[in-house]
Write a structure and sequence with these properties.
The chain is α/β, with parallel strands linked by helices. Helix content is 51%, strand content 15%. It folds into 3 domains: 2-112, Response regulator (Rossmann fold, 3-Layer(aba) Sandwich); 134-196; 200-356, Heat Shock Protein 90, CATH 3.30.565.10. It binds adenosine-5'-triphosphate and magnesium ion.
Length: 364
């Protein structure tokens, strides 16, 4: 065999072993290929093949035999042998060896690439989830600052202006002051609106109330008949979950108004079997795979990542009768930092650190 390999232009460093013990010891090193006889006293090619397989190493294995039946050859190939040769046909050994080594290298490359791809997907998913959470925390921080700084100053100005209006007698001044008061009131409203968009304060009253409010407002704004149903009037949800559900409903409803051409939409909130589900279904035109692949559309992709931050997932189904988005969150899978962070809607929240808790921001 060595002579045939050399004749085929292959430079070979080889080790010849004859027993299982020697074979196992030799496998500690790295080899490009194993050429194995079929039958040996006390050992066999098929047993050697099993041993290679059990190490998990990807070493090509060619069975070379004086006589080999078709059934044995098939069994060997099925068990992971790269090839089999008859000793009477060793001219084929060199090309078969090169081919087997190349094929194994290609498999190794593919495994490496698959692993890299899986790792990179994991990293990307972690990053996307991290970004979702950071965006919420940043929004909460900005909203808090507007509330404390801008809101506080505007209120102080309002009081001062009201005081002035009471203490001046010149009607022209009073009129000017009242105009200023109007401007300040307008600024207060604007800052409240901005705060609400940054961080829905309505969530302080619980997810059910927030969704009720959101669906009513949606119906009023768009004229699309919107039905909200819930299995519970109040829900005790772990930290993070209410905001994820709220943002999911918000994006789903925005999509309905932007894309669906629907006349009716239903929002169902259910807690059953320890799983919270939020279902938004419309009777619109439905969506296709192409819609979801749009390069510049991030809404639905974001929902998947957002759901992942609390151990949940999003299912989407669509047909000619409309689109349904379902968010599911198994509540026991949500990791709450400690018991204090459980969102108890009937009691005021205390003890959690609002900066680290994207769901908490309130009317301090
Ligand atoms: N309820 C719906 N009915 C019909 N088509 C929809 C619906 N929701 C989404 N689509 C389609 O799926 C596409 C992707 O939606 P997605 O929310 O991911 O992105 P978008 O709304 O286009 O942009 P954004 O990133 O602002 O959310 C939309 O562009 C639209 O074509
Ligand atoms: Mg969208």
């Amino acid at each position: 065999m060595l002579a045939h390999l050399q004749r085929g232009g292959i430079q070979v460093q080889s080790l010849r072993v004859e027993s299982e013990r020697e074979f196992v010891a030799a496998l500690a090193q790295d080899w490009d290929i194993i050429l194995s006889d079929f039958g040996l006293p006390g050992f066999s090619g098929l047993a050697a093949l099993d041993i290679v397989k059990s190490t998990g190493k990807l070493i090509p294995f060619i069975l070379v035999s004086g006589e080999i039946g078709e059934d044995v050859a098939v069994a060997a190939m099925r068990n992971g042998a790269s090839d089999y040769l008859l000793k009477s046909n060793l001219a084929r050994l060199a090309p078969a060896t090169l081919h087997a080594i190349e094929a194994a290298e290609a498999v190794r490359d593919k495994r490496r690439a698959d692993l890299d791809l899986a790792q990179s997907k994991d990293r990307l998913r972690e990053l996307a989830q991290h970004l979702q959470t950071s965006v919420e925390m940043e929004r909460a921080a900005i909203a808090r600052e507007i509330h404390d700084d801008v809101g506080g100053s505007l209120t102080a100005v309002k009081f001062d202006l009201a005081w002035l209006a009471r203490h001046v007698n010149d009607p022209r001044l009073v009129e000017r002051i009242n105009q200023s008061l109007e401007t300040v009131n307008h600024a207060v409203e604007a800052s409240q609106r901005i705060m609400h968009n940054l961080r829905p304060a309505i969530l302080e009253q619980g997810l059910v109330a927030a969704l009720q409010w959101m669906t009513q407002r949606f119906e009023k704004r768009t004229g699309i008949l919107t039905v909200f149903r819930t299995s519970h009037d109040t829900l005790h949800l772990p930290v993070g979950v209410p905001l994820v559900a709220y943002r999911t409903a918000q994006e789903a409803l925005t999509n309905v108004s932007k894309h669906a051409h629907a006349t009716e939409v239903q929002v169902d909130l259910t807690l059953a079997g320890g799983v919270l589900s939020l279902e938004v279904s419309d009777n619109g035109r439905g969506l296709s795979g192409d819609d979801l692949a749009k390069a510049r559309s991030f809404g639905i992709r974001g929902l998947h990542e957002r759901a992942g931050t609390v151990g949940g997932w999003v299912d989407l189904s669509s047909g000619s009768s409309g689109t349904t988005i379902i968010l599911s969150v198994p509540l026991d899978a949500v990791v709450a930092p400690d018991d204090e962070d459980i969102d108890d809607e009937d009691a005021p929240r205390t003890g959690s650190d609002p900066l680290n808790d994207p769901t908490s921001w309130g009317d301090q």
